[in-house]
Write a structure and sequence with these properties.
Length: 161
Amino acid sequence: MSIKHQSRQLTSLHSAMESKGIPLRRQSRDDSNERAATIAKCIICQTQTDQTTTTSQCGRKRVAEAAEIRNDSVCKRLKDVIGQEFVYHVTNECYKSYTHKKHSKRCVICLVQTLRHHHVAQLTRWTSLSQQLVHNLRHRIVTLQAAVLTCTNSLVQYAEQ
């Protein structure tokens, strides 16, 4: 049996399962209220509308890139349909707004700001920890110097006797 034939059989099996309300994958606890991606519906909005859906290699690539940047529910759905062709609406509400560079840049900027804030918080914690470490080391050095001085004094007194 060829791979293409197996793929068609799998797609028809998936469609049959979804039409009966059987999810394609087990739902995890963190996305229990999100159903598995329906291949026949738009990957972005997952709604059935009068608007036609389409698919192309270039379009799927752009949706996947935008989803990777956004790391949202579409990204999770794409992980569900790996290796399968998905469809999308070529409308302002779906494909165009989702893959628009302005929106992608905004997501990247938000991500960079979040990471910057996280790194600043980490640096603040590390600075605080290093200051505590330096303080503790200075205290131990002073304690050791006092112990060495006491031992030296004891040796001098012993030697004088």
